[in-house]
């Protein structure tokens, strides 16, 4: 089976009702990145940060995978599909995708502020984290999210996956956040690259097949191109 590698961003989940970051009315219009997505913001006001991610989890629990997520999961019948997502939701998994690498962490997990290595699963019944919620060793729990200014521990693994791709697909990312946006550069020469996004994306390599549509419609078009 050919290896199909997919890089997804917030636009993948937009049709599920989850806000993107940089579109008009996106999350970064309402919140300052520095307040809720940096180690400095966490040190200044952990309550605000915990509240922000509690709200994101609430939104996720009210959402379900869209037709784009489902189509990607179904492609496993025809391809060896590996998804690298910048999204912290679990909608790819809910849709049935088997190989999902989360570059920027996962909303439904928290980790200890002690060593940072102990990770705990949240549940739909207990999805909020509060000041004073601690790991068994007594350290405050924080969101399991890669904030701006922090290392991206899964990046090396993501590079290896991209290097293996026979076909590379990008869906719903503004390609403004690094190192994620650089992954496209690790594909082998002459690998076909498709990009699904309803808006224009800047600074792309020239050899890309652009499908200027939303995730669901775009995936339906891509399936027709890939499976003849
Ligand atoms: P952005 O909000 O920067 O970009 C979202 C992209 O989705 C844009 O290119 C939109 O045009 C596109 N889009 C909107 N609606 C769509 C739809 N229905 N179907 C397909 N695409 C659609 O989000 P990301 O590129 O994912 O990191 O942002 C990257 C990172 O920046 C995030 O992981 C997050 C953020 O700050 C952290 O929080 C650490």
Walk me through the topology:
Elements (H helix, E strand, L loop, with lengths): L2 E6 L18 H4 L2 H4 L2 H6 L1 H16 L5 H8 L5 E6 L5 H5 L4 E3 L2 E8 L6 E3 L19 E5 L9 H10 L2 E5 L21 E4 L11 E4 L3 H12 L2
Parallel strand pairs: 1-2, 1-7, 2-3, 7-8, 8-9
Antiparallel strand pairs: 4-5, 4-6
The structure holds 2'-O-acetyl adenosine-5-diphosphoribose.
Helix content: 25-40%
CATH C-level class of the largest domain:
Alpha Beta
CATH topology of the largest domain: Rossmann fold
CATH fourth-tier homologous superfamily of the largest domain: TPP-binding domain
Q: What is the subunit arrangement here?
A: single chain
Structural class: alpha/beta
Tally of structural domains: 2
Task: Tell me which CATH architecture of the largest domain applies here.
Answer: 3-Layer(aba) Sandwich
Please give the order of strands in the largest beta sheet.
3-2-1-7-8-9
Q: What is the 3D form?
A: globular
Q: What is the beta-strand fraction? A: 15-25%
Number of helices: 8
Which sheet architecture does the biggest sheet show? 6 strands, parallel
Distinct compounds present = 2'-O-acetyl adenosine-5-diphosphoribose
């Amino acid at each position: 089976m050919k290896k199909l590698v997919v890089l997804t961003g917030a636009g993948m989940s937009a049709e599920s009702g989850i806000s993107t970051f940089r579109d008009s009315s996106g999350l970064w219009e309402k919140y300052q990145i520095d307040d809720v997505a940096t180690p400095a913001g966490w040190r200044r006001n952990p309550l605000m940060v915990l509240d922000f991610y509690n709200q994101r989890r609430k939104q996720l629990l009210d959402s379900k995978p869209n037709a784009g997520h489902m189509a990607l999961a179904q492609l496993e019948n025809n391809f060896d599909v590996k998804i690298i997502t910048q999204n912290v939701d679990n909608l790819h998994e809910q849709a049935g995708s088997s190989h999902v690498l989360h570059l920027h962490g996962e909303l439904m997990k928290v980790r200890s502020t002690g060593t940072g290595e102990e990770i705990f699963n949240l549940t739909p019944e207990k999805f909020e984290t509060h000041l004073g919620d601690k790991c068994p060793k007594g350290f405050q729990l924080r969101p399991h999210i890669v904030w701006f200014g922090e290392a991206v521990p899964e990046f090396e693994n993501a590079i290896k996956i991209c290097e293996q791709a026979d076909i590379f697909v990008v869906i719903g990312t503004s390609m403004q956040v690094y190192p994620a946006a650089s992954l496209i550069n690790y594909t082998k020469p002459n690998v076909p690259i498709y990009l699904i996004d309803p808006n224009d994306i800047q600074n792309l390599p020239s050899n890309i097949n652009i499908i200027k549509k939303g995730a669901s419609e775009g995936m339906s078009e891509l399936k027709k191109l890939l499976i003849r």
